[in-house]
Amino acid sequence: MKLILILIAVPVVLAGALALYARLVPIEADRFTSKPGPDAAGVHRMPGGAKYVLPLSDLPKDALVNLLGIVRQTPRTIEIATDNGNSFVTRSRGFGFPDVTRIWQDEDNLHIHAHLVIGKSDLGVNGDRVRQWNEALRGSLR
Hints:
This protein is of the alpha+beta class. The chain has helices spanning 2-24, 63-72, 125-139; strands spanning 42-46, 49-55, 77-80, 86-91, 98-105, 109-116. A hairpin with a 6-residue loop joins strand 4 and strand 5.
């Protein structure tokens, strides 16, 4: 009976510790203000994230404002105040792993950079999330 309790308790304690770590790990401040590349128009997949560089000429009027509204409605997403673009932290269900998204506009493009904070692979979650935001934004063209 003791062995069964130990075999149950150890994974539960480890899972709880992982969830606690994911929620308490500090996120470097420069993650909320940096403007990482690439800067060429297109969809750029990378390990742990994705960057969309969308030409403003292909987007609806007020694309940035519309996109920020879409992002703010995303579950488990909070906005982080910055003086340099817009930053968001979206946490995964369950363990609460944080992903940072930076959104900014330059003269010709709208930039959306989403990247994990913990680990090496996000299993494509960031790219999928940004793709959905892009589709919702472009749906406002109609």
